[in-house]
């Protein structure tokens, strides 16, 4: 089946499947008490609406016009048969608001969605180091608008609480949290536990459909801020839920995650549920029961019950009450079938993304381990692909693949401190209904960074002929651009 965007509602997903199958799929409308049906959640941004995925990648450390760490975003456009052009966007690009300044960090975080409901996906770009008036590092969020030729022009969104913010736009996530079929944008600062929800109904003049805030207490009195935001429908009620990955600087409780269910009024903090700790999450229906499951990556070496040294992935199964901490699977590098073994500093689970890579109708999981040492090459990094079970009941270690830069089909070679797997992304670049895999290597060439797109073939192999580097994307290689640190999803 074709992949649908994470922010697609169940009704929209059903309509899309019917369109793709020529209406030959028979569906029975569920009653109010019936369990919800299967739901596709693989991401698929399409900025030029050509039916093939486009992938935005941050390079927030890029020099622009001689300004250090002004920041840039690279968009790799999908095309029939493979990987298309890569285009760089900065605040000095035509139509992008503002101008490149030292330390802006344009692209520090990214999120996509059709914010103005014109049929073209748009890209929200965090600029947390932006000086706003006299507020140093006040931060901002800009939306670059989709069009038939790709991203074109942009708008700065108004900070709804300018007196309360520093580094606004440091964390972003797009989803339909209130079920009105419009894409909302969740914005965090990284410095507080408060998340601003900008409701759908975005206009190119900067207006939105409204504003609210939500706060999940990270831990006791030591709360510091939000590390990551993610979304999905874990309780199957048709409203996208918000997952908050929080952190604090205490050894006793360095991390806490919260599931905040969506509702007609948006994320409902009063019903928040604390989840197992982890640095990053993704959501998708891995066991095909109609509820999104929450996949939590725990990359540190201890602190999670049952986790092997080197990191772990926990799958918390969704249900009517949301994700269940007690009903879960755990996979580590010591799980049967998974290549390698858990070792201190591997950071297995530091990044992850779900998608159907082999085209069998089941979700697979790509797991980054940027700290992996391979054949004595320190921190060269590695990526593991965990496949969905053939019966659709969840993920398995059986048949898992390990990818390094010495793996046939992966460009370049293993080198010290490449940090392959610093981010990972799954998208159908060529429109063949199999998800392709993109690997970030933020340490490549001394911090220049790189992205390696690998196309998924019918044979089950993954192949890439070249990487995307700052030079190939017309970015300056001065300093440490860190291309591949973050993909929009």
From TrEMBL:
PROSITE patterns: FG_GAP. InterPro entries: FG-GAP, Int_alpha_beta-p, Integrin_alpha, Integrin_alpha_N. Keywords: Glycoprotein, Hydrolase, Integrin, Repeat, Signal. GO terms for biological process: cell adhesion; integrin-mediated signaling pathway. Residues 320-347, 466-489 are annotated as: Disordered. GO terms for cellular component: integrin complex. Pfam families: FG-GAP. GO terms for molecular function: hydrolase activity. Residues 1-34 form the signal peptide. This is Integrin. It comes from Streptomyces alboflavus.
């Amino acid at each position: 089946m074709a992949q649908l965007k994470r922010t697609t509602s169940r009704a929209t997903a059903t309509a899309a499947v019917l369109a793709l199958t020529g209406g030959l799929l028979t569906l029975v409308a569920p009653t109010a008490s019936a369990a919800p049906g299967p739901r596709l959640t693989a991401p698929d941004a399409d900025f030029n609406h050509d039916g093939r995925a486009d992938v935005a990648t941050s390079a927030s450390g890029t020099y622009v016009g001689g300004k250090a760490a002004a920041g840039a975003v690279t968009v790799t456009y999908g095309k029939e048969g493979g990987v298309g052009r890569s285009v760089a966007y900065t605040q000095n690009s035509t139509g992008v608001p503002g101008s490149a300044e030292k330390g802006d960090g344009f692209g520090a975080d990214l999120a996509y969605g059709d914010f103005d409901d014109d049929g073209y996906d748009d890209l929200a770009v965090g600029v947390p180091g932006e000086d706003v008036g006299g507020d140093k590092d006040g931060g901002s969020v800009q939306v670059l608008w989709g069009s038939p030729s790709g991203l074109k022009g942009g708008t700065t969104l108004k900070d709804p609480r300018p007196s309360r913010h520093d580094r606004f736009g440091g964390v972003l996530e797009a989803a339909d949290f209130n079920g009105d079929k419009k894409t909302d944008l969740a914005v965090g600062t990284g410095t507080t536990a408060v998340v601003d929800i900008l409701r759908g109904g975005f206009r190119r003049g900067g207006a939105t459909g409204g504003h609210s805030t939500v706060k999940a207490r990270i831990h006791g009195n030591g709360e510091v801020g939000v590390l990551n935001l993610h979304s999905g429908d874990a309780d199957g009620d048709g409203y996208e839920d918000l997952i908050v990955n929080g952190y604090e600087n205490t050894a006793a409780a360095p991390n806490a995650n919260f599931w905040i269910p969506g509702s007609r009024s948006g994320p409902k903090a009063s019903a928040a549920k604390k989840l197992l700790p982890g640095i990053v999450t993704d959501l998708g229906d891995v066991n095909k029961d109609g509820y999104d499951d929450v996949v939590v990556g725990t990359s540190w070496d201890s602190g999670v019950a049952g986790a092997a040294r080197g990191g772990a992935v926990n799958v918390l199964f969704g249900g009517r009450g949301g994700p269940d901490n007690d009903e879960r699977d755990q996979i580590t590098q010591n799980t049967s079938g998974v290549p390698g073994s858990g070792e201190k500093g591997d950071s297995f689970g530091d990044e992850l993304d779900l998608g159907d890579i082999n085209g069998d109708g089941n979700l697979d999981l790509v797991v980054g381990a940027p700290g992996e040492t391979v054949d004595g090459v320190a921190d060269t990094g590695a990526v593991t692909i965990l496949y969905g079970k053939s019966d659709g009941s969840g993920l398995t270690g059986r048949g898992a693949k390990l990818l390094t830069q010495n793996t046939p089909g992966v460009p370049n070679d293993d080198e010290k401190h490449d940090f392959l797997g610093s981010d990972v992304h799954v998208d159908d670049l060529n429109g063949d209904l199999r998800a392709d895999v993109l690997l970030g290597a933020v340490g490549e060439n001394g911090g220049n960074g790189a992205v390696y797109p690998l196309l998924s073939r019918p044979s089950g192999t993954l192949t890439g002929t070249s990487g995307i580097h700052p030079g190939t994307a017309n970015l300056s290689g001065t300093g440490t651009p860190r291309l591949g640190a973050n993909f929009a999803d």
